[in-house]
Design brief:
five-stranded antiparallel sheet, 14 helices, eight-stranded antiparallel sheet
Length: 439
């Protein structure tokens, strides 16, 4: 028999610790029917409803003072359709569990982000993406979804069934309802060869178009206060499989990238004048390496050092100018930035609120170590991003509002009209959605 755990809630905090909320109660439904009942009960009590995954968003997209839905009992694979090339998975399933389960079945997503702690619904609803020349965000790989709407109804949505809802809800920031299941396109598992190597900042910018065109997946990290980057190129491979050695993997991915980097950030936070020197050392700490493995072991990596992040998507053709301006701004300021700037790309897609909606995009992500003042850095960076028609990542720190976003997204009005129809009373609203979508 299914059960619902419900009761008085404490304080909810996101992963970075920069967002807190005190919901009236928390509900952990064990079935779609229980989730629908929880939404109807919230309506009777005049309360708002928000679902929360693992809290990896840096915005208050999931915060509520009403009913907080925790989906950890709505997990696992419902069905695999090998003929259609799809997998249907419960919304609370962590990406890590999905990736491992798919690999066991000889299947894989085509592309994914660089961490896999998030739930599938949280990742897609906020626009989580990796990097790709032709392969897009995780939401763009959705072929169907199941959605509980404001009156407790359950909608099945595909390109043929409720197509208008499907078109928008693949990336809905939780504004249209609570997703209970997602059907993803999958393919037979394949191998990727990753080539990681340092490269001067100016060379990366000079050769960016070539590097992007020649590689299925290209990304790089620039270390502020230096002229250095680390680059990564991932391309499909016929094999053989040659994973990172256990010892060398631990040394670079755990000891250096997490352990030593954590200590370096503690030092930089305590003594900011040391940050430029630390950045120069950090930018040279990782050596070049090449390895071949299954997709999720190449695309993703452990991120144990906690931070706060802002990320904007700019038109791909505007990337090099955006980065040059960002570097000039840091070099001329008194800022001390200990985290590298992450740069990725995505092709245009057809999702109304996708940051790549209708245009080939490049992503520039700026970070600050948790507990370090970030406002001055993010404000200056955001000024540059918005000057290049940037679109903020829905799950990362930004200050944009509905007026700005309506001009940045050609299909913004299409999304808000659907929201008016599905949730006229704003059952799924909160302060963040009022700011970014309007009242």
């Amino acid at each position: 028999m299914s059960t619902t755990v419900s009761g008085q809630s404490g304080t909810w905090r996101n992963w970075a610790g920069n967002v807190t909320a005190r919901p009236v109660r928390e509900v952990t439904p064990a079935s779609v029917e229980e989730l629908s009942a929880a939404v109807r009960k919230a309506a009777e009590d005049g309360l708002t409803v928000k679902a929360v995954g693992t809290g990896h968003s840096f915005t208050a997209a999931a915060a509520t003072d009403g009913v907080l839905i925790r989906p950890q009992l709505l997990t696992g694979i419902r069905a695999i359709d090998r003929a259609a090339g799809t997998v249907t998975v419960e919304a609370g399933t962590p990406l890590k569990r999905l990736n491992v389960a798919l690999a066991r079945e000889g299947l894989s997503l085509t592309n994914m982000g660089d961490i896999m702690e998030q739930t599938v619904s949280g990742a897609t609803s906020t626009g989580t993406h990796g990097t790709g020349r032709e392969s897009a965000s995780i939401a763009a790989q959705i072929k169907g979804l199941e959605l509980v709407t404001a009156d407790g109804s359950v909608l099945s949505c595909t390109e043929k069934e409720n197509p208008d809802v499907f078109a928008a809800a693949r990336l809905g920031i939780g504004a249209l309802g609570v997703i209970t299941a997602i059907t993803f396109a999958v393919e037979p598992i394949f191998l990727l060869t990753a080539r990681e190597e340092p490269m001067p900042f100016e060379r990366v910018l000079a050769e960016f178009d070539e590097l992007w065109a020649e590689n299925e997946h290209f990304e790089f990290y620039w270390f502020p206060h230096t002229g250095n980057t680390n680059t990564k190129r991932n391309n499909r491979s016929a094999g053989p499989e040659k994973p990172v050695g256990q010892l060398s993997g631990w040394f670079e991915d755990e000891f250096l990238s997490n352990g030593v980097f954590q200590v370096a950030n503690w030092v930089g936070r305590a003594v900011p004048t040391t940050v430029p020197a630390i950045a120069r050392i950090s930018s040279r700490a990782l050596s070049a390496r090449t390895y071949t493995d299954i997709p999720y072991k190449v695309f993703t990596s452990p991120r144990r050092v906690r931070f706060v992040e802002m990320e904007y998507a700019v038109p791909r053709e505007a990337l090099t100018q955006t980065l040059r301006e960002l570097k000039v701004m840091v070099d001329r300021s008194d800022l001390r930035v200990s985290f590298p700037v992450e740069v990725r790309t995505a092709p245009a897609d057809d999702i109304a609120l996708s940051t790549a909606s209708g245009r080939d995009s490049a992503y520039v992500a700026v970070h600050m170590f948790r507990g370090t003042p970030y406002q001055a850095y993010f404000t200056a960076a955001e000024r540059i991003f918005t000057a290049h028609e940037g679109r903020p990542h829905w799950g990362k720190v930004h200050t944009r509002d509905a007026e700005y976003l309506a001009g940045a997204y050609p299909r913004f009005g299409e999304f808000t009209a659907l929201r008016d129809r599905l949730d006229p009373d704003r059952r799924f609203g909160n302060d963040y959605l009022r700011r970014v979508l309007g009242s």
